[in-house]
TrEMBL record, chain A:
<dbReference type="GO" id="GO:0000155">
    <property type="term" value="F:phosphorelay sensor kinase activity"/>
</dbReference>
<dbReference type="InterPro" id="IPR036097">
    <property type="entry name" value="HisK_dim/P_sf"/>
</dbReference>
<feature type="transmembrane region" description="Helical">
    <location>
        <begin position="12"/>
        <end position="30"/>
    </location>
</feature>
<dbReference type="InterPro" id="IPR003594">
    <property type="entry name" value="HATPase_dom"/>
</dbReference>
<keyword id="KW-0812">Transmembrane</keyword>
<dbReference type="GO" id="GO:0005886">
    <property type="term" value="C:plasma membrane"/>
</dbReference>
<dbReference type="InterPro" id="IPR004358">
    <property type="entry name" value="Sig_transdc_His_kin-like_C"/>
</dbReference>
<dbReference type="InterPro" id="IPR036890">
    <property type="entry name" value="HATPase_C_sf"/>
</dbReference>
<dbReference type="InterPro" id="IPR003661">
    <property type="entry name" value="HisK_dim/P_dom"/>
</dbReference>
UniProtKB/TrEMBL annotation, chain B:
<dbReference type="GO" id="GO:0006355">
    <property type="term" value="P:regulation of DNA-templated transcription"/>
</dbReference>
<dbReference type="InterPro" id="IPR001867">
    <property type="entry name" value="OmpR/PhoB-type_DNA-bd"/>
</dbReference>
<keyword id="KW-0805">Transcription regulation</keyword>
<feature type="DNA-binding region" description="OmpR/PhoB-type">
    <location>
        <begin position="124"/>
        <end position="224"/>
    </location>
</feature>
<dbReference type="GO" id="GO:0000156">
    <property type="term" value="F:phosphorelay response regulator activity"/>
</dbReference>
<keyword id="KW-0597">Phosphoprotein</keyword>
<keyword id="KW-0238">DNA-binding</keyword>
<feature type="modified residue" description="4-aspartylphosphate">
    <location>
        <position position="51"/>
    </location>
</feature>
<keyword id="KW-0804">Transcription</keyword>
Amino acid sequence: MKIKHQLAIFNALTRLLVILVLWLMLPILVENVVYRHINNGLVEKKKKFIEHLNQNEIDDFIVNADDSTETYSQFSSLHSEFLVLSRLQKLPNQEKTTFVNENRIIEGEENEYRILQYHFTYENIGYELEIGSSLAEVKDLTFIIKLFIIIVLVVIVLITFLADTFYIEYLLKPFYKIIDTKIRRVNEPEAFDHTPIKAHSADFRELDSVLNQMMDRIGELFKKEKQFISNVSHELLTPIALLKNKFENLLQNESLNDNAVDKIVSSLKTLDMLKKIINNLLLISRIENNQYAANEVINFHEIVSGLYEDLQDRIDDKEIAFSNKMEHDFNFVGNKTLIHILLYNLVTNAIKYNKEKGSIVVSDGFLNQQYYLSISDSGIGMNETQIENIFNRFTRINSDQEGQGLGLAIADSIASFHHIDIKVTSKPNEGTTFLLLFPNSIKA
Amino acid sequence: MNILIVEDNKELAIEVRDFLSDGGYVCKIANTCNEALDEIGGNDYDAMLLDLGLPDGDGFDVLKAVRKTKSKIAVIVITARGGLDDRIDGLHLGADDYLTKPFALTELSARLFAVIRRMHGYTLNDLVVHGFSLQLQDYKVSYEGMPINLTKKEFDIFQYLVLNKNRVITRLQLTEHIWGDILEINSDSNFIDVHVRNLRKKLDKHTTIDWFETVRNVGYRINT
């Protein structure tokens, strides 16, 4: 999950939590405010009532003075308010006002009321005054307020979520730009773009400058390695050239006996092997040091038929049936010489590890819309462990075979230089298939 | 033919000089860029063998300086760098050929021959050996006017041996000449023998070829 989504979701969740708490507290808040308001109203009414109170009025209120349950009650027509005055059996200890919520039935209709109860003494007689105000409206109102608040909050959450997402995306834009232009597209330090990325956040500017510094260091190392490779080549290959030329000149000497000639020839062979090992190791280093340009359009048909021509001797020598079943024209941009070496090494391997009268098939096609070239042989094959190791340097399947075991290591470096995937399938004694999967992105 | 050998390894320069002198070339050695430029300024050379890694600079600078003058000297760049970019740079700057160290001296003489021939507009005579004539521009061989059908590899082997006549050419040298340098496989290849055997059969039809000698365990030699 991307950081912009994570942040937006986190923000939304915290906001939801705050809203939930608010929502849970809402009834208490509303009731406090509303009840205080109602209480004030009731106290106001009580004051008015008590101010004007006299015996006549009480007598008016209480019709049956002898009846112990005598009460007077009065209510508004919509039952939203009522007033009850009743005589108490004994005198109250003191005047006191209390508020309660109770259900009352007035004219057969039950409602919840906020009720003020006031006990007082008038001319030595105790009375209880009850003034009620209906809560039905208040409940309705509370419900509407709750609903309204919920809607408003949901809308706010949505709006802020979207705003957050866009803002975070805007903030993170330089980050993705850095990843894209500075890291992903850079294959070699020389191709690195040092122009600073415009960013509003100091963090990304810092990241950018640190990356620039790191790339500078890497570039420096690459340069040093290039220099080293060049020095090694010169310092090692010049003496080999000298020895080789001396031996070759020595060989022309007619007075040498057979024994001496044999020794010189075998020394020349050793020198040749040494030269090839050095050249192959240098080749791998140069490929890994990105010293080759990859800008030629490559025609695989041409390379494969050229290879067949070059290697025909070896193919015929083992009476191998070589068939080229390529039928597509795929244009690949890369380094022609390196691709030639890659295919050369795979084909020579297919010859080297083949049986007498075996076969080699070169074919091509598309696998998941990716172009592939496959080179199959009917050779000695390999088991799982051998397959794992074939791309390591100086690995040979069979120690009787010639060569230094660098062919596939070189093939591997060339393939990764061109972003080509090599897939190997093999069965002991049945043969091996090398599948080269070419990337589509560099397609011409 | 005057040849300037620009090489900082003195011993190697001497080996090359001795070899080329045997082939009839007149050679001079320069060990540094400056020496090379002085030599070219003061004398008339037909060809230069130019090593790139020189103590006082890059051989390419010598090449650039030479190409700015009117001198038509043929240049074969010799380097241990072997990087493909170097090769391309060299050919861009006007090098006529490119040889990587370590090279066989016989390969050098073959390249030198080709470069000098090209410089003279291919007007040099065909190679002739014991009545066989090699027409270099169209890869044809004839014996007293009768054409002989050789494969390209057979022709290349024949030409290489003739160019380096009276020298023992090892199988290794022939292999490298025919198949190039990228081989990992058997330097000790017998495949060269197959081609030589076929070549000899084709030549043998016309005349005795006892001058085409097989040197035991080593290779071949054409004697004159």
